[in-house]
Design brief:
271 residues; alpha/beta; Rossmann fold; 8-stranded mixed beta sheet; 10 helices; 37% helix; globular; AB_hydrolase_fold; hydrolase; 2-succinyl-6-hydroxy-2, 4-cyclohexadiene-1-carboxylate synthase; AB_hydrolase_sf
Length: 271
């Protein structure tokens, strides 16, 4: 279980154990937090205490964190989260998805009537003007990607974590350790799913199109200093009918960098 820190309990869905953590009053407005590629539910540790009065449910996605197991695309991830909600009889859910978690949140909203609102955090509609670190394609290759992932030195993992926050944001030891734990727990099969197949899927059906077609209230929170996407997609989401908020000082991880501002936006959206 190295790199798979357990902070909650396990739900059993389709023969798989899924790591789930709940915080807050059971009668509070339910909020489901879905982490990004290569992360875990611990990326919301700074955000959860600020969602005052909410029933907060966090899930380690398939192939991540303490859930572990084989990788899965956003649709399969969403089916598992829907079953977790059904088992716990949770309805009226606001699904908050960070990065790849935004794909999962929208897939969940499209297929699960228990979801009534969606929050997209730091995710552009597609990869059309995305800027990713070089060498990512190597991680999608069979065997090569597995070896690169398995033997990545800690300094390389820290460099990726640094890129996932705003320039100048201090990546302390706790966040660096968490990034390393999450990297070790990640199933290498997620690399081709996110870096290759996801690019194709988003090109065919971008997230702004899905936002418009969902018919649900959607809040989009973008980081003004996001090194992957920036806030360039704000106009597209506005045209799709979403409410858009830009946190100027945040990078790709507002849930870590500016948890107070992010929580305030989510709570305001709930009201």
């Amino acid at each position: 279980m190295a790199g798979r820190r357990v902070a909650g309990s396990f739900a059993h869905v389709g023969g798989r154990r899924v790591h789930v953590r709940e915080d807050g009053p059971v009668d509070g407005p339910p909020v489901v937090l879905l982490h990004g590629f290569g992360g875990s539910l611990h990326w919301f540790d700074r955000l959860v205490p600020l969602l005052d009065g909410c029933r907060v449910v966090r899930v380690d996605l398939l192939g991540h964190g303490a859930t572990g197991g084989r990788a899965a695309d956003a649709d399969e991830q969403a089916r598992v989260v829907a079953e977790v909600l059904a088992q716990r009889r949770i309805s009226g859910v606001t699904a908050v998805g960070h990065s790849f978690g935004a794909d999962v949140a929208l897939s969940l909203a499209e297929t699960c009537e228990r979801v009534t609102r969606v929050v997209v955090v730091a995710q552009a509609p597609d990869y059309s003007d995305a800027t990713f670190p070089r060498g990512g394609r190597l991680l999608t290759l069979p065997l090569v990607g597995t070896l690169l992932h398995r033997f990545a030195p800690p300094f390389a993992v820290r460099a990726v974590a640094t890129h996932a926050v705003a320039p100048g944001f201090r990546v302390g030891s706790a966040l660096a350790r968490q990034a390393l734990e999450d990297h070790r727990a990640l199933d290498a099969g997620m690399f081709p799913i996110v870096l290759e197949r996801r690019r194709q899927r988003l090109a065919q059906r971008p997230l702004d199109v899905r936002v418009r077609e969902s018919g649900l209230p959607v809040l989009v929170v973008l980081g003004g200093r996001d090194r992957f996407y920036g806030a360039r997609s704000a106009g597209r989401y506005l045209e799709a009918g979403a409410r858009v908020e830009i946190i100027a000082e945040a990078g790709h991880s507002p849930v870590v960098e500016t948890p107070g501002r992010t929580a305030a936006l989510v709570l305001d959206f709930l009201e």
